[in-house]
Specification:
The structure is a single chain. By secondary structure, the protein is of the alpha/beta class. The protein has 9 helices and 7 strands. It has a single domain, classed as 3-Layer(aba) Sandwich (Rossmann fold), CATH 3.40.50.720. The chain has a 7-stranded parallel β-sheet with strand order 3-2-1-4-5-6-7, with helices on both faces.
Length: about 270
């Protein structure tokens, strides 16, 4: 067993993007960090980060990973559920099988990790579970219905979980990024059977999304919010990451329903 006296953080999906920057930021904040990837043979080594293989869509993979971390490090103080997949296309173009695949990673993957890590945190009487949501956890996004639904699910799950685990010294917190400069769009599932009825508007929204990601926040901006959530002595239930996410939260909370609806359509260049 490796015991350094430093707190231990476990970050899923840490080979690139937000997960990679979060792992590095947690090392800088004084944590021993375990990062996970589905294929560790393709991971570029990061100073201070121990990489282990993990498929969050597999019960056995999750159970084995958490047991290995516990055996090697003796504790798990912070879990960052960052691993996720995207999905683009109209709701009608998205098969149930595609939607199930999104939920198996984005929602059930989080649940698998939580269920394996929580017994260790309860035994310690301390811990932070940080689930990476999105502004799409509280905003609608046309032509991303399955992904948006998965992030709405994470918001409700995490808030409910937080109330359950506080008595055991554990907190479950949400971090909500806005558009971030990652490979999200390129790595998102596309419709298996595109429908002509949606083609024009889907293409317009795809252009909007590509521009938003290109001009979005750097992954380090999100990582900073995650480290704040991990170390805040008086943690808040949710942390918006970056100024755009903060503005989106205010829009959702304060804008009248009609104004909000029109703004969503204007932002996505939807007609009618």
């Amino acid at each position: 067993m490796m015991t350094t006296g430093r707190p231990v953080a476990l970050v899923t999906g840490a080979s690139s993007g937000i997960g990679k920057e979060t792992a590095l930021a947690l090392v800088a904040a004084g944590f021993d960090v375990i990062g996970t990837s589905r294929d560790t043979s393709r991971v570029t080594p990061l100073d201070g980060v121990t990489f282990l293989g993990l498929d969050v869509a597999s019960d056995s993979s999750v159970a084995a990973l958490v047991q290995e971390v516990s055996d090697r490090f003796g504790r798990i103080d912070v879990l960052v559920n960052n691993a996720g997949v995207g999905s683009l296309g109209a709701a009608e173009e998205t098969s149930v099988e595609q939607a199930q695949a999104v939920f198996d990673t984005n929602v059930f993957g989080v649940m698998r990790m939580v269920n394996e890590v929580l017994p260790h945190m309860r035994a310690q009487r301390r811990g932070r579970i940080i689930n990476i949501s999105s502004v799409l956890g509280f905003l609608p996004q046309p032509y991303m219905a399955a992904y948006t639904a998965s992030k709405h699910a994470i918001e409700g799950y995490t808030e409910s979980l937080d109330h359950e685990v506080r008595d055991h010294g554990v907190r479950a917190l949400i971090v909500e990024p806005a558009y971030t400069r990652t490979g999200f769009e390129a790595n998102s599932a596309k419709p298996e059977i595109p429908l002509h009825a949606y083609a024009k508007q889907r293409q317009a929204v795809d252009r909007v999304m590509a521009d938003a990601v290109r001009d979005g926040d750097a992954p380090a901006v999100v990582a900073k919010s995650i480290v704040t959530a991990a170390t805040d002595p008086r943690p808040k239930p949710r942390y918006t990451a970056g100024p755009l996410a903060a503005r989106a939260r205010v829009l959702r909370r304060l804008a009248p329903a009609g104004v909000f609806d029109k703004q969503i359509r204007k932002m996505n260049q939807l007609t009618g």
